[in-house]
Amino acid sequence: MKKSLPMKERITVTRRGFLLLNSYCPGLLKDKTLYAFAAAIQPLASIWISAQIINELTETRRIPVLFGYVAAVIGTNFIVQLLKNVLNKAAAEKEAQMWNFFEKIFSDKAMSLDYADLEKDQVQQARKEAHENLFLFGNGLGELVWSTTGLVSSTVQILTASSLVITLFSSASGNTVMDSPLWILAVLFFIVLGGYANSRATHRENHLFERWCKDSVWFYRSFSFYSQELSMSLERAKDVRIYEQEEAARRAFQYMTAKDREDAGAIFQMSLYPALARVVIGVGNSFCWVYVAVKAFLGAYGAGSIVQYIGALERLGAGIQDILFQITDNAVACTHLKGLFAYLDIPNHKYNGTLPVEKRAFCDHGDMDYEIEFHNVSFRYPGAKQDSLKHVSLKFRIGERLAVVGMNGSGKTTFIKLLCRLYDPTEGEILLNGIDIRMYDYEEYLSLFSVVFQDFRLFSFPLGQNVATDTDFDPERAERCLNRAGFRERLSHLPDGLATCLYKDFDADGVEISGGEAQKIALARALYKDAPFMILDEPTAALDPVAEAEIYASFNDIVSGKTAIYISHRLSSCKFCDEIVVFHEGAIIQRGSHNELVADVTGKYYELWHAQAQYYTADTL
Q1: pLDDT tens digit string along 313-335?
Q2: Which of 460, 512, 537, 580 would disulfide-bridge 454, Cβ 3.0–4.6 Å?
Q3: SS (HEC) of 567-617
Q4: Residue 520, class by beta-carbon neighbours within 10 Å (0-12 exposed, 13-18 middle, 19+ buried)?
Q5: Is 126 helix (H, G, I), strand (E, B) or coil?
């Protein structure tokens, strides 16, 4: 195991962990603390009152006093138990939800990162390791939550138990040896010895646990894949059956079972050290009991006090053992918290800009007249050996229809990512009305674009919320956008209209939709946003020929007066566009109208067109 962090650094890391918990799980630590306090004080109060009852029974036997003590123990236990139940329920509910809040920590960080950083392997690896430590083994934040109870409980036990055993050493037995103050040191020695043994056992157990966790990551990843992804995923179900992949899953489970048996030794060792520590603790407790019994035999105190002192010494020992355990275990929590914070501290390198988009008086035609220009733009992905875009220069204004075509890997998607500022150019600049887009407020700049990506995703929410991407939306506007996107007929058959939930993740009555229907909803979502720039990346790829023809026929109505950038491998669709830009190996090699480009028999567009010509009708040209 790695060398433990210095105590000063552990305090800093722990404090930050508690602040993070309070931010994402408000009230959880407070409820856990109050519950732990009540749970720790109850048995000690019962010990003291029980001791008084026994003393009263064996000595004066005053009936009113006995009834008073009995009422006190019943009332105390009733009130404390009631308080514990209330606090435990509140804490349990928050603790059950905390894993969802922990997921939000990761989602918030992912959303704050620059998209370019999010795609980096080292960032994904840091996230994966932090996520696995937290969710597979409960390390880090989970440990802080659980240690809160232990810290509070042990502190209360040490303080209250100490107050109950003070009279043990001040009670005189008449025996010089037994009344010596050195017995205080002897008792404390055995109590601390038990705590130290427990602490060392925890340290050794943690060392083995760390090694076991590291060796078990593959096991859990494999188990998750074979038991959930491969067996349960509907996306893989057909291939699993056709290619008989259940046999591969069976072999993997056999291997994992064998690996689990191999790990039995490590698990046994993790159990062995705490067991040996309990032996040492038992020896220490026995010494304390003998000391209490001998002083009682010599007449230092009565039978009730024996109950009080033995119970208090046990609680004192348990408190010291637990607090030493928490201090030792905190080293493990801090190690994993540092891994979590290393991920959360990854800086966002994107410059967000400050210039507002909507308040500028653009050009001569008002605020909605936008002009975008790529000026000698080149881009290279991190770690790549060559540019994906090379010296691209292009200008287009609002209202134009621009088609972007080219072979796979020609740079079309990279061009769109740069336009949407998911990446920034390696060289050159992209201008919005003559100003570098990096100068604009990032969120406001993104508001200019409605995009239907080829790998878009819909959410398991009601249809209307999917279209509006909001819980509060205009139903008439959402329905109008769905109709324009060709979803009218399907919408009329949905059981709850716009309130119909998509998919069955959250609603058993949710509807499953086809790929083509999903594409229409994604198009309606882009229409609902009503941004001045609309980018369509293969918007009809999943549609049947009839639906595709309907979309093409209403293309001008769909894009209205917006700037439309249309990416497609189906060159027949380019006839709807004012201009076509042909990408090849990261550069623009041709541009012009469909008729102009198809007439150039030496050009790339002509080559691509005639490669698809067998699928076109005679009058397509």
Answers
A1: 888 888 887 887 788 778 878 88
A2: 537
A3: ECCCHHHHHHCCEEEEEECCEEEEEECHHHHHCCCCCHHHHHHHHHHHHCC
A4: buried
A5: helix
pLDDT score recorded for residue 475:
93
* Residue 53: count of CB within 10 angstroms of its CB: 19
> What is the Cα–Cα distance from 455 to 581, expressed in whole angstroms?
22
Q: How far is residue 350's CA from residue 114's CA, in Å, rounded to a whole number? A: 6
User: What residue has token string 């959880």?
Assistant: 28
Q: 575: exposed, middle or buried (C-beta count within 10 Å: 0-12, 13-18, 19+)?
A: middle
DSSP 24-53: HSTTHHHHHHHHHHHHHHHHHHHHHHHHHH
Q: Which residues on adjacent β-strands are paired with residue 432?
A: 372, 435
Residue-level pLDDT at 359: 45
Phi–psi pair at 235, nearest 5 degrees: -65, -30
CA gap 123, 239 in Å, rounded: 31
Contact residues for 88 (Cβ-Cβ < 8 A; gap 6+): 35
Highest-scoring range by mean pLDDT, 168-177, 188-197, 463-472? 463-472
Answer yes or no: are the C-beta atoms of 507 and 501 closer than 8 Å. Answer: yes
Burial 275-312 (b: 16+ CB within 10 A, else e): eebeebbeebbebbeebbeebbebebbbebbbbbbbbb
**CA–CA distance, 414 with 419 (Å, rounded to integer):** 9
What's the order of all strands across the beta sheet hosting 401-406? 449-452, 533-537, 563-567, 401-406, 579-584, 587-592
Residues 547, 514: Cα–Cα separation, whole Å: 13
Of 140, 273, 134, 123, nearest in space to 217 by CA? 134
- The structure's pTM equals 0.71
Distance CA 52, CA 46 (A): 10
DSSP string, 170-220: HS--S-TTTT-THHHHHHHHHHHHHHHHHHHHHHHHHHHHHHHHHHHHHHH
Counted residue by residue, the chain has a size of 621
3-state class (DSSP) for residue 487: coil
**Mutual angle of helices 121-137 and 182-224, in 10-degree steps:** 120
> Smallest Cα–Cα separation from 346: which of 124, 14, 136?
124
Helix/strand/coil for 396: strand
In 225-302, alpha helices (H) = 231-232, 234-242, 246-262, 264-297
Angle formed by the axes of helices 28-58 and 7-24, to 10°? 110
Amino acid in the structure at residue 283: V
The H or E element that residue 82 is part of is helix 63-112
CA–CA separation, 371 and 356 (whole Å): 16
Q: What is the DSSP letter of 265?
A: H
The rounded distance, in Å, linking the Cα atoms of 561 and 581 is: 20
Percent of residues, the chain, with pLDDT higher than 70: 81
Name which of 457, 449, 456, 386 is nearest 418 in CA terms. Answer: 449
Mean pLDDT score across all residues of the chain = 80
